[in-house]
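Section 3.1: Structural characterization of target chains.
Under the original work plan, the team committed to producing a structural model for every single-chain target entering the pipeline before any wet-lab resources were allocated. The record below documents one such target. The sequence was received from the expression subgroup and is listed exactly as submitted; it comprises 290 residues.
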Amino acid sequence: MPFISQPSDGEHGSSATNKDNRTPNIPIDRHRSKSFSSVSSEGSPNGSTGRRSSRAMVTSSSYSSLPYSPAVAFLSNFVDATAPKVSLDEEGAHVGDYLLGRVIGHGGFSIVREATSIQMDESGKVERVAVKIVKTQTGATDNDRVQKMLRKEIAIWSQISHPHVLPFIAVEELPTDTFIFCELCTGGHLLNYLSLRSDALPQSTAPTTPGSAKPLEEDEARAIFNQVAEAVRYLHEEKRIVHRDIKLENILRHEDGTWKICDFGLAEYQDEEAALCFGPSLRTGGGLGR
């Protein structure tokens, strides 16, 4: 558990005042962004040399794992302004209500990271989610088209709610990146699930030898097909959306064993009337969420 280490006598002299009053000197950062703050990593920065200070650096990460209370919320505003900064899309960055974690996937113009909620829920658990990150300037010659497609994906996906469609959670639009938060499915996609099955380890993530893959049982295949078909029916009939990219890699397995369609990057409304009915414009400069 993070803690604030007390300074040694040698750090500030040996006067009685310093010995008896060991409250850490934490500068106030009065310019902290509401949408983003950096969190230092353990150890010294890359390339640094010399001895490590005996006094632990106090950063926002020192408080992020503590149970929420008014005192914790107050003290977290006094993080050290000299802490090493991280880029907005790097591991350890604080975006919206989440702390970015490791990379778990890549797209043509995006990366996908795992993220965790800053605050615990009522049961004392931290929410784990996935976040798709797209640069405002992707470097592509058709960047304007990429950004337009991203905004359309958000507008469509944010209007969908179905047990077998990957849930959209929120979007944060910052000057350099757009962050789309969604549910995390830890079971991988359907192509991976089919290719890595075996008799001994039906859910193994280890590569299998040729001929060792086990075909799906008829009941399981039927269940998967029905879940995907129900999601497609919902999109077509209730939302009048065409996904346009249904494939094994875009069908994800939730930890509870259910399957969910993802990736609405190529999705379109069936007609202009549907777009007017179901496709609200997305306001810029803020978060959109559930």
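Residues 1-56, 199-208, 281-288 have pLDDT under 50 and may be disordered.
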